[in-house]
Amino acid sequence: MKVNHGLIRAGIVLTIVACFSSVSGQKPVNEKDGELLSSVKPSPDLYPANADASKEIKEALKRATEEHKRVLLIFGANWCYDCHVLDHALHEGEAGRILTEKFLLVHVDIGEGEKNPELVTAYKIPLDKGVPAVAVLESNGHMLFSSGDGEFEAARRMLKKDLVAFLNKWKPKRS
Is the model more confident about 139 or about 25? Predict the structure, then answer.
């Protein structure tokens, strides 16, 4: 009996793929609820080199008080593809609507890890878990949330519905 080793290898590969997809527990990404954040073309100035993040946060907190919004800090850098994906997602669709109505956004540049260390510390951002990292502030400056477990580090694999749920959870309850 002649054995076709090519067919055996193909069967093994298909079995492995089937096993991994069944244990992942994720819905297929083509379902509406399972749509991933969109791929983007990175912008070289998402995190401007000369920005004063401390000043921008103070100004955003003042405006947030007047506008009854919260402040969303995104820690990242221009080299970080996932930072660009998250930023794009925060400006489109339902997430964009919620952000515009309920939050003020401030980008905090970490450079290669050396920029804005006082803000990284103040907002409990563990750079070793990756960026983008997020903090949500009440208009009085009180920190409500910090992504201490690297929840946003792989934004390109994040589902749009999960970003919307996050924003809905942390938006102010009143307008």
Answer: 139
Q: Residue 60 gets which letter from DSSP?
A: H
**What is the pLDDT averaged over residues 72-76?**
97
Distance in angstroms (rounded) separating the CA atoms of residues 70 and 141: 9
DSSP string covering 84-118: HHHHHHTTSHHHHHHHHHHEEEEEEE-TTTTS-HH
Written as six digits, the tokens of 53 are 């993040």
Task: Compute the radius of gyration of the chain from its Cα atoms.
Answer: 20
Please, is 115 exposed, middle or buried when counting C-beta atoms within 10 Å of its C-beta (0-12, 13-18, 19+)? middle
Give the β-pairing of 133-137 and 143-146.
antiparallel
Distance CA 61, CA 150 (A): 24
Query: Residue 6 above 70 pLDDT?
Result: no
Prediction pTM value: 0.78
- Please give the residue that has the higher pLDDT: either 4 or 155: 155
- The domain covering 29-170 belongs, at the CATH homologous superfamily level, to Glutaredoxin (3.40.30.10)
E strand or H helix at 168 = helix 160-170
Burial (0-12, 13-18, 19+ Cβ within 10 Å), 150: middle
Task: Report pLDDT digits (tens) over 107-130.
Answer: 999 999 999 999 999 999 999 999
